[in-house]
Write a structure and sequence with these properties.
Layout (H helix, E strand, L loop, with lengths): L2 H20 L4 H20 L7 H24 L12 E8 L4 E2 L3 E8 L5 E7 L8 E10 L4 E2 L5 E2 L1 H6 L3 E5 L3 E7 L4 H20 L4 H10 L7 H9 L3 H4 L3 H16 L4 H18 L4 H19 L2 H18 L3 H4 L1 H23 L12 H31 L1 E3 L2 H8 L2 H15 L8 H23 L4 E3 L5 H26 L5
Helix pairs in contact: 1-3, 1-12, 2-3, 5-6, 5-17, 6-17, 6-18, 7-18, 9-10, 9-11, 10-11, 11-12, 11-14, 12-14, 14-15, 15-19, 17-18
């Protein structure tokens, strides 16, 4: 499929979903859109060489807008909401825990699928006794609808739509829970989550808190145990992406696998091994939407870095985004992690080569030999990647969250080189722990010291005066203007690079 046609389809579909999400559409608007689509399409078919077939592309784009609207509206009509009359009442329900239980400082919460499989309810309860995936439980408590809230920066967080994207329309806090049975919806997922729990226990046996919970987050995608104060420090310093299950973490896992298999497999074989490792890691972390999304992004980034084929990887990114929105249209406007993931990935794909060029990396650079040369190249690549990703997401964060972390870039540059080392040690500890914790005690001390240093740097960064600046009421047009400028800079760089290489711009 030609690139212009692909981009027209994907862009139009995304616009249609977004328009349907943000506005109540009138019938005359849809009728006008149908008329415009027909006129442009017929004109393009009758005059295919007119303005490089711009009319046909515009017609296809308009048709895609209509399809996006239809897809979003169909997803809304599938919402049955049978418990709406019970909101505000104390009720008793029986259902199955269908996701990994998230344990926090003073409570635990889980996603309950009701026995009739009509609703998903987010339930929070006491920290003990502990519940697990697949438990059949009876819950008693007041049924409520999620409430939106304001952040410390004065921005309203649409918590209701954030949960609705995952078909969660009700919550139940301080619930009384009674286990009545066990029947996991997926035996495979149950085994993987049990294996993950054992890996986490092996880490906790030799690594102290809070370093163990931090390591569980970066190595295993665990979201349990991190204190609210530490989480706020991550947010303040712009390093929350490290502890969250992101494409960065998963790409490290895949790179380790690629390097191991690359010693005795071909390039293609090592690439396949990296891809398989991503799939297995995502499954082990529970295969939730965020994990799947991060896995796709990590795979695309790895492919771009390994092949250097920016043009093709952009096509793959567009296709991945199209199918993700097609599967769940609500993520486009309501899932911040989806939005950040795509922006960061685009930044890495297009921005990293530019910054590497600025830092003196040549396209035909030979493999570095010697420890100092490799360290220098690794530091340069880390700086380029970090800078590219942060510039790509900065306008979005300022507009949506009303925050600007001044300390984010220097802190990320300093601590990111430690993360792959800590993850490698964490995996070794988790696996060797099955043979006895005494085998991993020295590694436990080492990773505790390493992550202790990282956490100290993050805590120090969070305490720096004016490290976290509130940006209230940033206009949308400002963010769009900045992104327009970034797109123009990238476009000019691509044109310049292709002219130098003697290739055609198209």
């Amino acid at each position: 499929m030609p690139s212009r046609l692909l981009y027209s389809i994907v862009f139009g579909f995304a616009v249609g979903v977004l328009v349907a999400t943000l506005a109540d559409l009138l019938e005359y608007f849809l009728f006008a859109l149908v008329v415009v689509s027909v006129v442009f399409t017929i004109t393009g078919l009758l005059f295919p060489y007119l303005y490089k077939n711009i009319f046909l592309l515009a017609g296809i784009c308009c048709i895609s807008v209509l399809l996006g609207i239809v897809r979003y509206e169909s997803s809304r009509h599938n919402q049955k909401l049978p418990y709406e009359p019970m909101v505000g009442e104390k009720i008793s329900l029986t259902g199955t825990i269908i996701r990994e239980v998230e344990r926090r400082e003073s409570n635990q919460r889980f996603l309950l699928e009701t026995r009739d499989e009509t609703e998903n309810i987010l339930v929070s309860t006491d920290l003990y006794p502990e519940y697990v995936y697949g438990d059949i439980v009876e819950v008693q408590g007041k049924l409520a609808k999620p409430d939106n809230f304001q952040t410390d920066q004065g921005k309203e967080f649409d918590y209701r739509n954030y949960l609705a994207k995952d078909d969660i329309f009700y919550t139940m806090s301080f619930a009384q829970v009674t286990v009545v049975g066990h029947d996991a919806p997926s035996r495979t997922l149950e085994i993987l989550l049990s294996f993950k729990a054992h890996l986490m226990q092996n880490i906790e046996d030799v690594v102290r808190r809070p370093e163990s919970t931090f390591l569980g987050g970066i190595a295993l995608g665990s979201r349990s145990g991190i204190s609210s104060e530490l989480r706020q420090d991550f947010i303040t310093t712009g390093t929350i992406h490290i502890v969250a299950l992101s494409g960065y973490n998963i790409s490290i896992v895949a790179k380790y696998i690629q390097d191991i298999f690359g010693a005795f497999l071909s390039f293609t074989g090592a690439l396949y091994a990296g891809g398989i490792s991503i799939v297995l890691f995502v499954l082990m972390t529970g295969a939730q939407a965020t994990a799947v999304r991060a896995g796709i992004m990590a795979l695309l980034v790895l492919l771009a870095k390994r092949t250097g084929r920016t043009y093709e990887i952009t096509r793959a990114l567009m296709i991945a985004g199209f199918f993700m929105i097609l599967h769940n249209p609500s993520i486009l406007a309501s899932d911040v992690s989806f939005q950040l993931s795509f922006l960061a990935t685009l930044g890495i794909i297009y921005g990293t080569p530019i910054f590497e060029k600025w830092f003196g990396k040549k396209d035909n650079e030979k493999m570095a030999v010697g420890m100092m040369q490799k360290a220098k190249r690794g530091m340069r690549d880390s700086i380029a990647t970090t800078l590219a990703a942060q510039i790509a997401v900065l306008p979005f964060i300022m507009y949506t969250m009303g925050t600007l972390s001044v300390i984010s870039f220097p802190i990320n540059i300093v601590i990111l080189p430690f993360i792959p080392i800590a993850m490698a040690l964490g995996f070794i500890i988790a696996l060797l722990g099955f043979f006895g914790s005494w085998l991993t005690l020295p590694l436990g001390y080492a990773v505790t010291l390493l992550l202790g240093l990282v956490l100290s740097l993050i805590e120090w960064g969070a305490d720096v005066p004016h490290a976290f600046v509130a940006v209230r009421n940033m206009p949308l047009f400002v963010a769009l203007t900045v992104y327009s400028g970034l797109v123009y800079v990238v476009y000019r760089w691509i044109v310049h690079r292709r002219k130098r290489s003697g290739s055609n711009v198209g």
